[in-house]
Design brief:
InterPro entries: Caspase-like_dom_sf, Caspase-related_regulators, Ig-like_dom, Ig-like_dom_sf, Ig-like_fold, Ig_I-set, Ig_sub, Pept_C14_caspase. With 883 residues, the protein is an alpha+beta fold. Helix content is 18%, strand content 32%. Helix 3 (43-56) crosses helix 5 (81-92).
Length: 883
């Protein structure tokens, strides 16, 4: 039997070079304690330790997955107690009980002492309801734990209050004082050499005294919507050490006889509307509750039947109202409601009359153009603006209420609906415009060659769309699932008042009239399901149609040439849902079915043939149908007949139900919820808005400083990691700046570097810097005309780096900017991009301490192109593909 571990003084620490085998032989009780600690870790805690091992293990190559195999490997590979201690502390943090226990075995005993104590005889006076926080701190080995005690005037002894170095207390009882004290004890029971328990230490006592006469309101009155004719109740509750008196007020006037905690209004009427509060006072103090606003709620017809009113005269409690920022047009619906109450039964009759008022010749009396026209009976009125001649400038509506029993007749206020002289364009204006632009250049399969124009075509279209106030989600080089996820993301911004534009530029295949989009991981295998290789165009169109956009515009800027024989069997067996549109849609194709699409390959800047003509007209002040008619005409008129006649011919299918303009203004001047959602989720500013003193920033900026060591003469880092807060800016020799900001495509970002000499001007001639991607991809443009871009893959888990692990940046004389590269494939990440920086000086490599973590919207808010609902709960995630 190894026995139970006891921490007995004098305690001999475990030598740091001992392994578990030697500890088991020489110190069996401590060995039993260590193994028990590891076995008692939760799965999450044990995995944190394994992550620490993975991040710091360069020698032992521990591959354990369970506590037993971990202990076995550590014993077999002679892991020192020091190394084990470091793994546990870095994995679980120093204040974890397991870390604290190992620390007690590793360091000599240190008795407890207070480093932060309560002042001697400290007294604080508080009001009732006031909250205070108290904190103490002690040091020692084994580490301390804390327990608080409280004692009031009615207590005969101290009572337990809580654990931890900090407590919060709110004075909620009208007692004269409360005493507090904290006991600090070693987390491990320590025994002296004569087998006596080492007791803890007590802090000084803190006395909290109640300020005499203070008042605390425990329950505040609540704002309410009150049903006309029903009773309503307001309530307040307060405590004090002195007797209290109460008085309720309505609109700053005292309510007669209202001197209790509860204010009851038996039959709520229009006279009872207003702000209510309660004044609470004693002989020493007076306090007012918050104001509760009582507004009236008009009863429904069913509720009116169950309410008994005492008034014999008709009282209108809801006047008809019709507010709109624009004039009404023929065919518009006009809806309004009038509600009155009375002891007797009521009859409602709605009437209207067409009027004309000359606004040019002066303020003349209006002319009656039509007779009085009955509309309907009942509280609720719904009418449709009739098709009259232009002489009617407005319609006047009125409700006449008659008491059935006594014949009393009362007319409501007039409601004027002003007419437009033509069908209003605003009915076709959007409250939000959003576009999804997907450009596919690269493909894994040899079946599809890489393309040159999609990225540049996409950038040109993005610029044009933003000029027309579209909010754009631009993405490049996506997989099949990523395209589907991107469409789901796009649809979260689409509703009945949105212009929704989807643009795809890349390879596509045709089969009859059907089009299948190609993603970068698409294949053409007869042995795989069709949906696992290609995306049927109807998936996208039906998905967007389910959101019922005001306008759905879909542009396929791609080939539609005949699919190869290898998958014709799959295509012939495909059964797709019939495509029908519930709202206005226009589908545009860069070429007809069975034809290919071409690029201008001989120009210095590559451009798609279709995009050349689309950019001419997409900003034009023309209806959407006319825009694409112009694009087709321009193509036929200007392109070489050898292409336009038989090899590439654009076409479009127009299913719009009204005249719509892409460049039309918004329906309202106020930002819709779509703008707020898009800004919070897709823009950089909410992430880094606080990094600069002036204005908003959409860049992550990090300054890293170096200097020449005065002792060794070597160039060293003096900021980075934990050193950042300890360095003096006056000691900087030079600054290496890293700037990460938004690319034109949302799943990419730019990374720029700058260098500035401060004190040591020789440094710029002797140093180079390397940026290492730890969990993302970096791409640096080739310097030569015929060179290829350099791709740098993630270096996760590496502790040392070579010249090919990341792009290299060298100072260029006195120029601050050193170079730029791109962070790509961000849609693949779940975690923010991480980078390390390496300094090369005089053939010496020095890694900067710490890791740069850079948040980007796509990773922060919609990793893997799926919205993070835990963060954005107000976004309704719509039904995904295939449901």
């Amino acid at each position: 039997m190894t026995g139970v571990f006891e921490y007995r003084l004098p305690f001999e620490v475990i030598p740091d070079s001992w392994g578990l085998v030697q500890i088991q032989k020489q110190r069996p009780q401590e060995y039993s304690l260590i193994t028990r600690l590891i076995h008692n870790l939760s799965d999450t805690e044990f995995n944190q330790v394994l992550s620490s091992v993975t991040a710091n293990d360069n020698v032992f190559e521990i591959r354990a997955t369970t506590p037993d195999t971990f202990i076995s490997e550590c014993s077999m590979k002679k892991v020192s107690f020091t190394q084990l201690f470091v793994w546990v502390v870095e994995g679980l943090q120093a204040d974890h009980p397991a870390s604290a226990t190992l620390e007690a075995l590793y360091f000599p005993f240190v008795p407890l002492k207070w480093t932060k104590n309560i002042e001697h005889a400290h007294v604080i006076e508080l009001d009732l309801g006031q909250e205070i926080q108290v904190e103490v701190k002690a040091e020692g080995i084994p580490k301390p734990m804390y327990h608080w005690f409280i004692r009031g005037p009615a207590d005969s002894d101290w009572k337990s209050f809580g654990d931890g170095p900090q407590i919060s207390f709110q004075y909620l009882e009208p007692v004269s004082y409360q005493l507090f004290s904290c006991q600090a004890m070693h987390q491990i029971l320590v025994k002296s050499d004569d087998n006596q328990d080492i007791q803890g230490i007590y802090s000084e006592q803190l006395e909290l005294r109640l300020r005499e006469g203070s008042i605390h309101i425990e329950v505040q009155p609540l704002t309410k919507e009150c049903l006309i004719g029903r009773s309503v109740q307001l309530e307040v509750k307060a405590i004090s050490d002195q007797p209290l008196t109460l008085q309720w007020y309505q609109n700053d006037q005292p309510v007669a006889g209202a001197c209790e905690e509860t204010l009851l209004i038996q039959e709520f009427s229009l006279d009872d509307i207003g702000d209510y509060f309660c004044q609470i006072k004693n002989d020493m103090e007076s306090k007012e509750s918050v104001k509760a606003n009582l507004t009236y709620l008009v009863p429904t017809e069913e509720q009116l039947e169950s309410i008994e009113f005492s008034n014999e005269n008709i009282v209108i409690v809801q006047q008809p109202n019709f507010k709109t920022e624009v004039k009404c047009s023929v065919g518009d619906k006009v809806s309004m409601r009038c509600v009155a109450v009375c002891k007797y039964g009521l009859k409602y009759e709605w009437i209207k009359q067409g009027m004309n008022k000359d606004l040019v010749d002066g303020p003349n009396d209006p002319i009656h153009i039509t007779k009085v026209i009955p509309v309907c009976h009942g509280m609720q009125m719904t009418d449709e603006i009739p098709n009259m001649d232009n002489s009617v400038t407005y319609w006047r509506y009125k409700c006449i209420i008659t008491c059935i029993d006594n014949g009393e007749r009362l007319e409501s206020d007039d409601v004027l609906c002003h007419m437009s002289t033509y069908a209003s364009e605003s009915k076709s204006w959007a409250t939000f415009k959003v576009a999804l632009v997907i450009c596919q250049e690269e493909y894994f399969s040899d079946e599809f060659h890489h393309l040159n124009a999609p990225r540049l075509d996409g950038l040109a279209l993005i610029k044009a769309l933003r000029e027309m106030d579209f909010q754009v989600i631009p993405l490049v080089n996506l997989t099949l699932q990523e395209v589907r996820n991107a469409v789901d993301l796009f649809c979260t911004f689409v509703d009945e008042t949105t212009y929704a534009l989807f643009y795809y530029n890349g390879h596509a295949l045709g089969y009859g009239e059907e089009t299948y989009l190609v993603a970068k991981d698409s294949d053409l295998s007869p042995n795989l399901p069709l949906e696992a290789q290609l995306i049927w165009h109807g998936e996208i169109e039906l998905r967007i149609n389910r959101c019922h956009p005001l306008l759905g515009l879909i542009i396929y800027d791609s080939c539609r040439d005949v699919a190869p024989d290898s998958i014709k069997g799959l295509l012939s067996q495909a059964h797709h849902e019939m495509i029908t549109f519930s709202t206005s849609f226009l589908i545009a194709y860069g070429t007809k079915a069975g034809m290919r699409s071409f690029e201008y390959a001989n120009q210095s800047v590559c451009q798609g043939v279709y995009m050349k003509h689309l950019l001419k007209y997409i900003r034009a002040n023309q209806s959407i149908g006319t825009v694409f008619e112009s694009v087709t005409d321009s193509f036929t008129r200007e392109e070489d007949p050898s292409i336009a006649a038989s090899r590439m011919t654009p076409e479009f299918k127009n299913a719009t139900k009204q005249i719509l303009f892409l460049n039309s203004p918004f329906r309202t001047r106020k930002f819709s919820t779509g703008f707020h959602k898009f800004f919070q989720i897709c823009r950089y500013e909410p992430l880094y808005g606080g990094f600069k003193d002036a204005g908003h920033s959409n860049e992550f900026i990090c300054d890293l400083a170096i200097q020449r060591d005065p002792t060794s003469g070597q160039v060293i880092w003096i900021t980075g990691g934990k050193q950042m807060a300890d360095c003096d800016p006056n000691e900087y020799g030079a600054i290496f700046k890293i700037i990460v900001g938004p690319s034109e495509f949302m799943n990419e970002a730019y990374l720029k570097t700058e260098f500035k000499c401060l004190k040591d001007t020789v440094l710029c001639q002797t140093v180079r810097f390397q940026v290492i991607p730890m969990n993302c991809f970096l791409s640096k443009a080739a310097s030569g005309k015929d060179g290829h871009d350099q791709l740098f893959r993630p270096c996760k888990g590496k502790k040392s780096f070579g010249m090919t692990d990341g792009p290299m940046f060298e100072p260029q004389g006195s120029t601050r900017q050193m170079g730029e590269c791109s962070v790509i494939e961000l849609q693949m990440s779940r975690d923010p991009p991480k980078f390390k920086v390496v300094l090369y000086a005089e053939d010496q490599q020095t890694i900067c301490p710490g890791v740069l973590n850079v948040d980007t919207p796509i990773v922060k808010n919609f990793p893997k192109l799926r919205i993070n609902n835990l963060v954005y709960k107000d976004l309704v995630y719509l039904v995904p593909f295939g449901h």
